[in-house]
Write a structure and sequence with these properties.
Layout: H1 3-25, H2 28-34, E1 38-42, H3 43-51, E2 66-67, E3 70-75, E4 78-83, E5 91-96, E6 102-109, H4 110-124, H5 127-132, E7 133-141, E8 144-152, E9 157-166, E10 173-180, E11 183-186, H6 192-210, E12 212-214, E13 220-228, E14 232-237
Antiparallel strand pairs: 1-11, 2-5, 3-4, 3-12, 5-6, 6-14, 7-8, 8-9, 9-10, 10-11, 12-13, 13-14
Helix pairs in contact: 1-6
């Protein structure tokens, strides 16, 4: 995982921890309102709305792709060689579209994505985050991901969930809100939680928009499309 991706992941962890503290020690609705959260309805209805936005048309490839075992990611003047097999990707291929355009395709199914997130926390998370969050999981729906965890509040663990979307066309990461007992709340516009949210969104978006991927043929490609479905995550570079 790239440095920007790790920063974004850890920023999300910080948001979840701060939210858990608010939820556990205060009357929920009043505390959330005072902290700047705004109730938007049932989480299931919000996620259903995302699902109805439609997904981008799938690319049609001219021939079957070739396995892509390694790719170099260039970002912020740094080059990092990535072993795609070590990332646990369900699919990592170099293929050509019907017009002959070279394309890299990376996919995670939901199970593989959960395993990758767990491994990232184990291998790269700072000790304070490892001690504060457990049972992190990702539940995918069309156009959104629900990231759930339990936060350590000393005497007990508080469950919480965060809703994240990625705009397929603009490649913008958006932490849209949190789920509390099946109810959806938008995050505050200012304060420490807003700072963590902004960090996660900015770093995640920058990584998707600015990273250059170089395969064995030496051709540099950029991320052109990110798609979240109920069964997996797909990233296409062209």
């Amino acid at each position: 995982m790239t440095r920007k991706g790790i920063i974004s992941l850890f920023a999300l962890g910080g948001v979840m921890l701060l939210c858990a503290c608010i939820f556990a020690f205060n009357a929920r609705r009043l505390a959330l309102w005072a902290a700047g959260f705004r109730h938007q309805g049932e989480t299931a209805s919000i996620l259903e709305g995302y699902s109805k936005q439609g997904l981008p048309e799938p690319l049609v490839f001219d021939v079957d792709g070739q396995p892509l075992y390694q790719v170099t990611i260039q970002l912020d003047g740094r080059s990092t060689l990535i072993d795609t097999q070590a990332l646990g990707l369900t699919r990592a291929e170099q293929a050509q579209t019907g017009s002959g355009e070279t394309t890299y395709v990376f996919e995670y199914d939901e199970q593989a994505l959960n395993a990758a997130v767990a491994q990232a926390v184990i291998s790269a998370a700072p000790p304070e985050l490892k001690n504060q969050l457990r049972r992190i999981s990702v539940d995918l729906v069309p156009n959104a991901a629900v990231i759930s965890a339990e936060a350590n509040l000393g005497l007990f663990w508080q469950p919480l969930a965060m809703v994240v979307t990625i705009d397929s066309a603009s490649k913008a990461v958006d932490v849209t809100g949190v789920d509390v007992g099946g109810q959806f709340f938008t995050t505050p516009p200012s304060g420490p939680i807003a700072t963590w949210v902004a960090t996660a969104e900015i770093e995640g978006t920058r990584a998707l928009r600015e990273a250059t991927l170089v395969g064995p043929n030496g051709q540099p490609l950029s991320v052109s499309q990110v798609t979240l479905t109920e069964s997996g995550l797909q990233v296409i570079a062209r």
